[in-house]
């Protein structure tokens, strides 16, 4: 029996790859001192690097972070955090997968504050970012993905951060359970199981 290993994602600035998909978000956060209010929303799909980029920003600016603001359990707590950012002039960066208009909020005061909050989006990954994220997810696990495997996998997977994460997880589980290295034959078998074209 192979027990799943715990791995920790590298969250340093040097570990964050900037591409066309996220360059606008990086520039926006770099210019935080010019925001009209000391709060902002960083919006993007799951696995897009929102939390990673937010952590880099927080270390640099002493910001407060509120991850997954679109799934907030206490609207009042988020409302008070927004007000505290105004009073203390300490930035509040909220991450979310969707725009505030899609959050189904009931607190009118929070809705109005979020409407006044500047926002930026991380777009769907371009090829360069998809490759960088693929390689990083393997490095976080202590594995250097071979170039031929990288090309093979990236030419066949769903072009999304979530699709990439699912694929890496499936490959990693298969490699660990079968005690095999990451290879094209292993990827081909996993893709058959995932119902991908191999």
Structural description of this entry:
With 198 residues, this protein is an alpha/beta fold. The chain folds into two domains: 22-121, P-loop containing nucleotide triphosphate hydrolases (Rossmann fold, 3-Layer(aba) Sandwich); 125-193, Helicase, Ruva Protein, domain 3 (Orthogonal Bundle), CATH 1.10.8. It has eight helices and four strands; from the N terminus they run αβαβαβαβαααα. The protein has helices at 23-30, 50-61, 75-88, 108-115, 127-140, 147-154, 161-178, 184-193; strands spanning 39-43, 64-66, 92-96, 119-121. The protein has a four-stranded parallel β-sheet, sandwiched between helices. Helix 5 (127-140) packs parallel to helix 7 and helix 7 (161-178) packs across helix 8. It starts with 22 loop residues before the first helix and ends in a 5-residue tail after the last helix.
Q: Which CATH class of the largest domain applies here? A: Alpha Beta
Q: CATH homologous superfamily name of the largest domain?
A: P-loop containing nucleotide triphosphate hydrolases
Per CATH, which architecture of the largest domain?
Answer: 3-Layer(aba) Sandwich
Distance between the amino and carboxyl termini: 28 Å
């Amino acid at each position: 029996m192979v027990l799943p290993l715990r791995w920790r994602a590298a969250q340093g600035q040097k570990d964050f790859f900037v591409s066309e998909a996220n360059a606008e978000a990086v520039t926006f956060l770099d210019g935080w001192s010019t925001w009209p209010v000391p709060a902002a929303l960083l919006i993007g799909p799951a696995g897009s690097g929102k939390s990673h980029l937010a952590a880099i920003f927080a270390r640099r600016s002493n910001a407060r972070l509120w991850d997954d603001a679109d799934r907030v359990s206490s609207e009042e707590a988020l409302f008070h955090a927004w007000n505290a950012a105004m009073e203390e002039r300490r930035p509040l960066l909220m991450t979310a997968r969707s725009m505030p208009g899609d959050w189904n909020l009931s607190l009118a005061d929070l809705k109005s504050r979020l409407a006044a909050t500047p926002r930026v989006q991380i777009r769907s990954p371009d090829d360069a970012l998809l490759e960088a994220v693929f390689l990083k997810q393997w490095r976080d696990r202590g594995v250097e993905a071979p170039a031929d495997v990288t090309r093979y996998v990236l030419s066949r997977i769903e072009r999304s951060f979530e699709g990439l994460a699912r694929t890496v997880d499936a490959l990693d589980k298969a490699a660990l359970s079968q005690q095999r290295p990451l290879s094209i034959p292993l990827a081909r078998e996993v893709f058959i199981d995932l119902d991908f074209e191999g």
